[in-house]
UniProtKB/TrEMBL annotation:
<dbReference type="InterPro" id="IPR011864">
    <property type="entry name" value="Phosphate_PstC"/>
</dbReference>
<feature type="transmembrane region" description="Helical">
    <location>
        <begin position="113"/>
        <end position="133"/>
    </location>
</feature>
<feature type="transmembrane region" description="Helical">
    <location>
        <begin position="168"/>
        <end position="187"/>
    </location>
</feature>
<feature type="transmembrane region" description="Helical">
    <location>
        <begin position="278"/>
        <end position="303"/>
    </location>
</feature>
<comment type="function">
    <text>Part of the binding-protein-dependent transport system for phosphate; probably responsible for the translocation of the substrate across the membrane.</text>
</comment>
<dbReference type="GO" id="GO:0006817">
    <property type="term" value="P:phosphate ion transport"/>
</dbReference>
<comment type="similarity">
    <text>Belongs to the binding-protein-dependent transport system permease family. CysTW subfamily.</text>
</comment>
<dbReference type="GO" id="GO:0005886">
    <property type="term" value="C:plasma membrane"/>
</dbReference>
<feature type="transmembrane region" description="Helical">
    <location>
        <begin position="240"/>
        <end position="258"/>
    </location>
</feature>
<keyword id="KW-0813">Transport</keyword>
<keyword id="KW-0592">Phosphate transport</keyword>
<dbReference type="GO" id="GO:0005315">
    <property type="term" value="F:phosphate transmembrane transporter activity"/>
</dbReference>
<feature type="transmembrane region" description="Helical">
    <location>
        <begin position="21"/>
        <end position="48"/>
    </location>
</feature>
<dbReference type="InterPro" id="IPR051124">
    <property type="entry name" value="Phosphate_Transport_Permease"/>
</dbReference>
<keyword id="KW-1003">Cell membrane</keyword>
<keyword id="KW-1133">Transmembrane helix</keyword>
<dbReference type="Pfam" id="PF00528">
    <property type="entry name" value="BPD_transp_1"/>
</dbReference>
Length: 317
């Protein structure tokens, strides 16, 4: 009976100083991100819990509310509602612009339009807020009146139209413009990475350009579109100054988008209320920030789960 041949000794590559430094730096950076996230979460929990458990009568910011949850619920609703309206307008337009740049526009026009989109992402939010409050709101107010007169039977367009145009719909339009360059830039890069073999195969089989895009480009970029949308959603959920400058809020829960009675958002409410807050009132605002942190975490977790369900494919498979 012969013995099994001895396994050759495993050769380990010698790590150079640069390899060790790079590996250690990458590991430290990854651990630092987790530590920062844990530190932010710990701060929000430790500072926010006292506001949830304290007597509402001890906090002036909760005047007129039974408890913390009746105060924060309209803010949560306003945050989600404005972000949803913004994505409803921004995502189809972003995908259309990205497809035009990547597959339809001549090269010179595509490059110029790409630069404009990237430049739009660098505009400060306060500029968007000034534009929304002083230019957009007065301009769209007649259109809101027309919507109410002709489509007032629809619940979203019912109610007394705002005379200033500073409504939740105006704030959502501003948010849509702000997240548009983020979603467009990411979708453009994803669409341009579609394997050429897939596109040429679809065209060779007699597909039109739109059919080729529908069968190859969009399925290839589906996970990327979801990721880009979630990044845009994160920007819309956390936007502060633009919403605070445009929206005329009343702290209510309503689906009407043309009236002057609008729900506020968590970020805008913190920015407007924090300068005058003191004592436990500060803890209340921090607790609302904890709600926003939890919403963002849940939304991104759902997006990651959706993206991971679909395997990426390339020209090789």
């Amino acid at each position: 009976m012969t013995s099994a041949p001895a396994r050759p000794a495993r050769i380990t590559a010698k790590k150079r100083l640069g390899d060790r430094l790079f590996s250690g730096g990458a590991t430290t950076a990854g651990a630092l991100i987790l530590a920062m996230l844990a530190a932010v979460a710990s701060f929000l929990v430790l500072q926010g819990v006292p506001a949830v458990t304290a007597d509402p009568r001890d906090m002036s910011i909760l005047a007129g509310h039974e408890n913390f949850w009746t105060y924060v619920w309209p803010l949560i609703f306003g945050t989600l509602w404005s972000a949803a309206l913004a994505l409803l307008m921004a995502v189809p337009l972003s995908i259309g612009i990205a497809l035009f740049i990547s597959h339809y526009a001549p090269r010179r026009i595509a490059q110029g339009l790409g630069y404009i989109i990237d430049l739009l992402a660098a505009v400060p939010s306060v500029v968007f807020g000034l534009w929304g409050a002083n230019t957009l709101a007065p301009a769209v107010q007649p259109f809101y009146t027309w919507l109410n007169d002709n489509l007032g039977w629809f619940p979203l367009f019912s109610g007394q139209v705002s005379g200033t145009g500073r409504t939740i719909l105006t704030a959502s339009i501003v948010l849509a413009v702000m997240v548009l360059p983020i979603i467009t830039a990411l979708c453009r890069e994803i669409f341009m990475q579609t394997p050429v073999l897939h596109e040429e195969a679809a065209l060779a089989l007699g597909a039109t350009r739109w059919e080729m895009i529908r069968m190859t480009v969009l399925p290839f970029g589906r996970s990327g579109i979801i990721s880009a949308t979630m990044l845009g959603l994160g920007r819309a959920l956390g936007e502060t100054m633009a919403v605070a400058m445009v929206l005329s809020s009343a702290g209510v829960v309503t689906f009407q988008v043309l009236t002057s009675t609008n729900p506020s958002t968590i970020a805008a409410n913190i920015a407007l209320s924090f300068p005058e807050a003191y004592g436990l009132n500060v803890n209340v605002l921090i607790a609302t920030g904890l709600m926003l942190f939890a919403i963002t975490l849940v939304v991104n977790s759902i997006a990651r789960w959706v993206v991971n369900r679909r395997k990426e494919f390339s020209g090789a498979n």
